[in-house]
């Protein structure tokens, strides 16, 4: 193997640039050429290829976003588009593909490899941390820190005003951000997709507080009641409780990656290149209990990553 491709797919996540740097420099040490592919799977079809070297990855380890750009290219869901993509890769002399993203991206990376006998290696990068086969995905820790900083500032206002504040964080399918940032910021109530939000119990808790004391609720965007504004409407309509809603939104995906994400991305970039060289393909590299693990790609999107029960219990005890 002499030439491998690299792309970032789906939404961006802090630490993707650190991964790019690691892949390029590890490959260079192995005498491999890396072809960067712009805008995810779309860039394969459109042949947006560029050779990446050491100079291209200088001073990017601490940058947010991705220098390769990214997209959720829906046509890749079609088999004939995946066939075309693999043909384009082979035409360019690219003998294997490393791609990073969330469950959706890993699914179609797997299908490209399986359907056309093409070597692929995946890396989980999504702030939701909802990829099976790794304790943490690239971007998750940075998103937690961004959300925590915002919630700490909101708490100052809530303390001053004594109001009910509802803060919506990202996590359409998983409550990892909500549960952990809620515990870390001392929220009085945390609503996540994995549990049923007990509205009468929430009302009881809010009502039992001192009238001038603030009440912080953190809700994941995928909670069954809806987002922050949906919960606010329920509290107002059912119990005449006024609240202030803050939706943190895409700010959680931006900014400089945390040191933990830089190190995680660096380890996984190195591991991805080694997996490609060793023929450990159609797999995803991840970190479990501190060690590099290789998980078959189908498991990364077919199996649900389970939120630990102890976090739910702890959040209830500490509220």
Key traits:
319 residues; alpha/beta; Rossmann fold; 2 domains; seven-stranded mixed beta sheet; four-stranded parallel beta sheet; 11 strands; elongated
Please explain how this structure is put together.
- There is one protein chain.
- The chain is of the alpha/beta class.
- The protein folds into two domains: 3-139 and 257-302, Rossmann fold, CATH 3.40.50.450; 141-254, Rossmann fold.
- 42% of the residues lie in helices and 18% in strands.
- The protein has eleven helices and eleven strands.
- The protein has a seven-stranded mixed sheet with strand order 3-2-1-4-5-10-11, sandwiched between helices. Strands 7-8-6-9 form a four-stranded parallel sheet, with helices on both faces.
- Helix 5 (140-161) packs across helix 6.
- The protein is elongated.
- The termini are far apart.
- The model has no long low-confidence stretch (mean pLDDT 93).
